[in-house]
Amino acid sequence: MPNVPAATVVFTTYNQPAWLEKVLLGFAAQSRLDFEVIVADDGSGEETRATIERLRPGLPYPVLHLWQPDRGFRKCEALNRAIVASNADYLIFTDGDCIPRRDFVATHLRLREPGRFLSGGYHKLPMDTSRAIGAQDIASGRCFDVRWLRERGMRASRRDLKLSVGPRLGWLLDLVSPARASWNGHGASGWKHDLLAVNGFDERMRYGGQDREFGERLANAGVRGKRIRHRTVALHLDHPRGYATAESIAFNRQLRAQTRRSRRTWTEHGIEKRLEPATLPPQLAFSPSSAS
Quick one: where's region Disordered (predicted)? Predict the structure, then answer.
């Protein structure tokens, strides 16, 4: 295949076009641009489609808008469709509310290893700060400056260190961090063949921790996580969490406990159950050539 991308960047979205625009602009400001983006859309309305259409001509990478009908929270199904549709051998996952720092893609590609997945980090912002970030702030990178963020409502925290450390100190902090190298939906990456070997995401999973179960099956299959949370940073924009319920979180914890207890690697509720690969409704298919 000509011009195979070095990576496919995947993230989901659902009726957050303003946040989606900031994320797409964040990827336009990357130091490496040899990647494609798949927007795995869990049923958004017309405004999301229009936002992608408006931005597409100015984006320096191809974008595929992979839409599915709105039938409730089906993030894992949207992610599985994106895995099937991806063209690269290496996939980088984030969220549609996370603005990547300019070295986000380059760092994931530089640190990738056979038989490992990478576990990245994020920096959560309050709503006022999230709204204050504009296109020029993203293009210049100043939205990652701690002082700039504090002037716009972000409270001081020891976690601010993630925004200011260089690669060497970041490596050391990742080395000594007690945090588990879990699959984090806001910033994780892995080899496509490893993701397919565990049959992708379990589509039974509901809102709250659904990404972690995927990483636990990868680990059971011998694909261990590697912490890079101090070396890959994304700004997590605030948003409502309407799908977060005690019932959904309890259900997910039960499935995760089963995965850990049984050491299972494969889910019967993932990609391979499909009789046909993911398809695009013609009116929602966006290809790089359509921008010309």
Answer: 261-292
Q: What are phi and psi of 67, to 5 degrees?
A: -100, 145
Question: How long is the chain?
Answer: 292
CA angle 96, 182, 129 (to 5 degrees): 35
Strand partners, 188: 93, 119
Q: Which pLDDT tens digit goes with each residue over 37-92?
A: 999 999 999 999 999 999 999 999 999 999 999 999 999 999 999 999 999 999 99
Give the model confidence (pLDDT) of 174-221 as tens digits: 999 888 899 999 999 999 999 999 999 999 998 877 789 999 999 999
With beta carbons less than 8 A apart as the criterion, state whether 105 and 66 touch: no
| Nearest C-alpha neighbor of 5 from the set 38, 29, 47, 42 | 38
Give CA–CA dist 14/18, Å, rounded: 11
Q: How far apart are CA 253 and CA 225, in angstroms?
A: 20
